[in-house]
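Hi L.,

You mentioned the student needs an example of a multi-chain input paired with its predicted structure. This one should do, with 649 residues in total across all chains.
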Amino acid sequence: MGFLRAWPAWARPDHPVFSLEAERRGGVRSLALLQMGCMPLLFAVVGFALALILLIGLPTLVLSGDADQIITLLSIAVTAMAVVQAVGGAMVNVLTIASTAPLVSGEVELQSWNLLRATVLPLHDILFAKLAAAIHSQRLPLTALLILRVISLVTALLLGMGFLLRDTFYWMSRAEYRQFWQEGMWAPIVIAVVVAAVFWVTQPLVQMGLNGAIGMLASVSGRTRSRAIASALAGRLVLWIGAAMVNFSAIYGLAFLILGNWLEPRYASIEAFRTLPEPTPAQAVWMVGLVIAGYILVVMASQIGLTLAMLGIAQRRARLLGG
Amino acid sequence: MPDSAAAQPFGQRLRRVITAPRASYRRRRIMRRIYLLSVALLTIGMLVGIDRLTFSSPQPWIADPRQYMLSGKLTLSFVLVFTMQMIATWLISVRAARMAASGVPRAGGQLLRARLRVIWRSLRGEALLIVLLRLGVFGVAAVAAIYVYTGWFGRPISSEPGDLILQVIRRGSPLLIILPLALALIQSLVGPFLRVRCSTALGALAATYTADRPMRPWAGMAARLGAGLAFSLALLWGLTVVVLTYLTLTEPGSSFDALLRPLPLLRGLTDEAASLAAAAAGAALVIALQMAGQIVLAGVFTHRAERRPALPDPRHTEPFLSSVKG
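Structure written out for the whole complex:
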């Protein structure tokens, strides 16, 4: 267990608050069942979906004689995995919120918060040890989600490779092909794919942190467990709707500016773009690749920033509790 | 009492110790028999239902009502029995892994094989049921072949896959059909038992990585389901890499025919028959790989589980070894 030494004291199992919280969680049988059953359930659903896709898809692929249909098969597989992940991810989000929201509100409700504050442990340690124990109890669902993310990433990369080979390189002239490699037009694509892959794989971790922070903030704000859970779930819903709206607007706006105006200035609906020269293919690929990578990085940074901000506010509010 | 217990053979004592603490063992045995009987009866009932109720009144615009009725009933029966055996196979794998994970791992690991044998024996009934269901799949296929290729039950019915198979046998090589069929038959007969062996070994191995006793069955199930998922992924990813590599090398053709055409065995065949032969060869390869994997991996998992002492349960200790050895 040498790797644990690198972790802060509050995140180690021998921390008194961590062990107390972990012990409490072990006693809740229904929660433990949900957590333990998550991995087999997710594997069963994805395995069943894949087996069905292969069972129906492979004979069709072979008997049709059209090798390009492998791309259709991959698309269906990626879609199925994405749907399972969305449902599984939502389930784990709710589980995380349900386990973090009662962390402090439960102590306040049972009037043991002041007792805990009377110990020599600093507030920061108490809060973070509780949060770490709650997140530690979610390690199995988190591992399952991370495995599924990696699996779907590899499948999606194969699908992307198929599209690139069959729909892009296939139609390129020799000159265009040479230009693609010699002028470094592959570089922005690689940058965008790497950033997107990192974003995709780390999302369960980032989301768990974000949900934990929402739960913790609700926990220090509510005086009872039920109120804290309800406000945390409502907060998550509001955040989800807000994020969807902001992302939709931003993506639509960027696509309108770049694809609809900058790429084709002659037909631009914004007059300012009409005077600009038409970008070369290399400029277009660089711009689109870097905008995608930049956008993903901004989203990730805002998720992490929001998590840290909520944890900071939770710490401030916790100081006022029971005083 | 200790004297009479000590007089019993070791295997019997082991079985007694494994099963005795479970008060619900008898109930489970009855439930298992009910399950076996209900699956068998359900399959037979559904087959009778398909025969009596489906494809019985062809629409007036159908040119050959007999052909329509027979091919419809046979296809539906084939799909039904195939699905039933798939579900039963899936269930037995998960059950075997779960049983092995929850009952097998103990410190030391010397009794692992004996414990695994007890689980194999208790799952013999389910495995036999799967063999019967798989033979049922072959039975439906055999009836279809009789209707397509012989005139024993009246005028032969026409079938496109049937014609393609005949073409592969006559113009290509009978081996292209016989070999996959033989492998599929062998897999049907021994596959369920191999699967039980492999699943129990995997379940036992997964459980040795889990200290918490209540978590062991879940770990076993997750490992078994993960292994199934890995097999499907290997098939999908492997095929994609092969197809994309082939397509990249043989630009601009996107049909399999260009690849299949140079093979001597497939030279005289039409494109569809060549594709069918290639699919049969691919299926044979997958079946062979799966069987080899089940045999090899079962040994590897058992060996590994034997050498990995189970992690001590932090909340529970059981004097198991002392109770068995008397």
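You could point out the following to them. Chain A touches chain B through 39 residues (CB under 8 Å). The mean pLDDT of chain A is 89.

Best wishes,
N.
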